[in-house]
Here is the input.
Amino acid sequence: MESLTFRHTTTKPLPGTKPQAITGVVASGNLEILLERVLPPDACEVAIETPVAGYGPVWEAVVADFVARAQPGGVRISINDGGARPDTVSLRLLQGARLMEA
Amino acid sequence: MADWRGERKARDARIEAGRAHANGKVVPAGDAVALLEAVLKPGDRVCLEGDNQKQADCLARALSQCDPGKVHGLHMVQSGIVLPEHLDVFETGIAERLDYSYSGPQGARVAKMLYGGQIKLGAVHTYLELFARYFIDLTPHVALIAGVSADREGNLYTGPNTEDTPTIVEATHFKNGVVVAQVNEIVDKVPRVDIPGDRVDFVVEADTPFFVEPLFTRDPAAMTETQILIAMMAIKGIYAEYGVRRLNHGIGFGTAAIELLLPTYGEKLGLKGEIATHFALNPHPTLIPAIESGWVRQVHCFGSEVGMDRYIRERPDVFFTGADGSLRSNRALCQTAGLYACDMFIGATLQIDLMGHSSTVTQSRVAGFGGAPNMGSDPHGRRHPSDPWMKAGREAQIVGDPALMRGRKLVVQLVETFGDKLVPTFVEKLDAMELAKKIGLELAPVMIYADDVTHIVTEEGIANLLLCRDADDREQAIRGVAGYTEIGRGRDRAKVEELRARGIIRRPEDLGIEPLDADRSLLAARSIKDLVHWSGGLYEPPARFRNW
Amino acid sequence: MAGPDRDRLSWYEASARQRLDALLDPGSFTEVLGPAERRMSPHLPLFDLPRAFDDGIVVGSGSLDGKTMFVAAQEGRFMGGAFGEVHGAKLVGLLRAALDVKPAAVLLLLDTGGVRLQEANAGETAIAEAMRAIVAARAAGVPVVGLIGGRAGCFGGGGLIAGTCSRLAVSEGGRISVSGPEVIETNKGAEEFDSKDRALVWRTMGGKHRRLIGGADAFCADTVSAFREAALRLIADAPAFDLDTLTAEQARLRARIDRFGQCRDATDIWAKLGVNDPDAVPAMDTGAFDETVAQAREAVHDAR
Here is the structure.
């Protein structure tokens, strides 16, 4: 298993007040994402556990794009990956953010 | 004096030799080897019918059991290398040369045998190309074909999978060749005559019915949100944009998702009757909801699909059917229809390079081409205008007299940026190049050449290559939809934004599509069972696709 | 997802959490040991396998038509819904707590291939403990109802747990058995049981067969609302758990073996049950199948 952690500063907090949300399932080609509103409003942390080693730069790019787009300030994001493709990761991250905004 | 009847005499002699094993034209399966040893001569060009669907498997087994002392050095000219026996004959020396078109399941073994020198390869063709050569320089001496039933006169009923049979028989029989047909049963009267009896010299009653694979059945249960998103973009950004009514679909999950979104998403966009009305296409089960809800008016087929027979029989206004009610397919004519009468080909591929060349070859497999390059190419012989064709032509060409401008076929590649096991779809260099070098092919096996491709659709967006004006535009347009692959991450971000401003790249949001709306609930059918319900119980899926 | 629309949500397709959300009264679910507590498998990392925050099972309480329920939902897509140590302990804990709290019922949304190979001892133990706890809950007057209609089916120890429940509801896609198709094929050969022949698999283990032979007590369309209605009905008519019930159940099962033991195929059984056209059963829609069930004797019984 490979562990990756990315920390970002955001310009604003993620809208909404929901303290926590989970989306996705740990299955082949899929992943689960747990979002928790536990950080300072301008911070975002994404921690990943993946069985597929060697994709650090791809994860970094996917997470950076997501943070730039969603500005998920205040949220700690934890990912259990089942070998998902980057597009699936992006989709789940956006789904998670939407759940927190609800 | 020249002998103008040498071939004819030779043919008559072969038939005479074969008659020793026949009762009239009928040969029992047990005597098939003896029959073939009697009619074949060393070095013959032989077409062993191996289609997409129906396989002359009994005759393939018989050929592989022939005595290599009597039958050897054959030149096989056949569209599909599908069964193990198709290659076994090269190991024993029965066959030596090969010209073919498609070798899906045997692709790895073909590559190995080419590399090992057991097969002397002429070329890997597209279907139409190989069929064309049957009439010019690859005319078979003997054709071994397959049908459902025949009468004692040799009148042949091919069943719904007519496929290559008429083309093979045309080339063989009318040029002094011998035609041997295997059938599942000999009957007093065939349901309809697909091949007249005077073109069939021998009929072998097979020991088991010929083998057919359900190649075109895509289970809606396996469709992903990403495939649905890509399908939504294609419908809104290409089908609607160009008003594509006449088209061909590939056989992947992406186009199957489009078929299942027509009655839902397409309906919501008000596109019914405006797009996807006339198809050159096998009878895909996923087409059923679009047919049932009145989207699809007409479908001409290359072959049939397992389980669709009863449904097709009950929908003669949509499909081409015989007086007996069953489907009449024809690969050569449907390929021609796909090439000349369709405004769009849309399908998937395994690899795309920076110029837009694409290939389904991987390092160790020679899968062949089949028909995709015929339909996925711009036919320069086309002369009739249509709105999509003209619009594509205008986009490609900005200068010159409009009256001298011709249209363009839309050739759309529908791909996810990563394939199975996180293998990237976008690459610097096609594996096909490496393979060609390794096994000594003069041409790299490119499925669709860059200059034919007009659009690439991925989950990241649509790249319209028609609007690209130079090589840099083109490369960055491709990088700009290549997602998180190395090719995608290597993009010039400023240039990609410029291309977006010019409409060359369009993101989901540029098309008014919210990626989070790409949900399985949009599919008109979410399971094979749903398809059965849509068909009113007429579709009978094979057991492996059932969960009931 | 556009919110839990229980009439449209496919049970087969939904995740464990989506099923619970849509099944229970809106907003009534309270999770115990939720994902944020990260009670994950201590064993999977040793095998370089990914973990799930909830170890593949969601447990807690909620209400169904206003009545308090304890619920457990397995996620069939995570390791095939298999029982590991944490997964099993969460289920057993829930069932034991039912003895103290006495909810109106315990609902088990089973979706499992059985025991997780990587933590088999803990999984096997959990299954035994779960069966024990179910019996205790039933003896204390709390009905335990199994709802089965997921991709993983209900196999291995899951099949045993199902056999311990007060009542079972199943959909067409749901399968209930102990040995799975591949296991049977491996042990007995493909001639005996071809696991790739999905029509054979479903008519031998699928929801319709289980309903027809009385292995399940309700047959549902593949929607969450159908399972909800079935659950309410089955809770209301759950049998008492006493010696009479068990004796009657034993007699029923013995009679079933006597009657069908020689049958070679499920369709033979259906024919003996008086189904007019057994070959037509797999293609029947829910309405037509309900009528068929109403005419077959075995499906109606009071034991369990």
